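Run log, item B.
One chain of 260 residues. Sequence copied directly from the ordering sheet:
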Amino acid sequence: MPTGATFDSDGVRLAYDDIVPEGDDGAAPPIVLVHGFASSRHENWRDREWDDTLLEAGRRVIALDCRGHGESEKPHDPTAYETDSMAADVVRLLEHLEIERADFLGYSMGGRIGTEALYRHPERFNAAVLAGIGAATMEPSDAGDRIADGLLADDPDDVTDPLGKRFRVFAETTDNDLEALAACARTRTAPADWDEIAQVEHPVLIVAGEHDDITGDPEPLAEGFPNGEAVIVDDADHLTTVPDERFTAAVLEFLEREGL
């Protein structure tokens, strides 16, 4: 199976990895991984050993670089980053790989994309872990504009908004296109609304760190899904949840119980 491959998603070239367990005969259940904002499939997952962990659990690992991120094409047009378009990218990747149905693991922006994908394309997914999101995900917010302003400031030292400053510093830790990220941030809208997620019948696990000041409480969001459940990672925040062993354990237990 290819790693470092690309495919065309409605005119946007997207990068992905597709890795199977050693000795797999084609029976490994697939899981698609979608990273957070200003991150990538490598930074969010591979570099934190998620690929290896899921492979050891017998999973076929499909990790996407979202448009505007990682090794994927980076449009500067904000309309390219509507949540439904980014959810459609995930489905087109499954179609490209001729995968009928997969489990899903997304973090932060990836969790938002997963929420939209479950609602709009229910037939393509089985169970989903939507992490780094919570009740605040469903509410209107000016966070996207604040983040974009921070990303586009001529001098990062001039950024006074704490949220804008945080994401500017984070985005500059890797080789990001700040204009593309700003376009993505400005299009940051709530995914499927409360009435829509009430129609999502998939098993869903919502996970957030106890001290995550971006997501809000994960429990009300989990309660909005008919088959949702929540896990709060004690003493973790938005950035420290991903590598936390308790997050890993919660995901593996959920997938063993509810996954393909």
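Observations after the first pass:
- The radius of gyration is 17 Å.
- The longest strand covers residues 12-19.
Flagged for discussion on Thursday.
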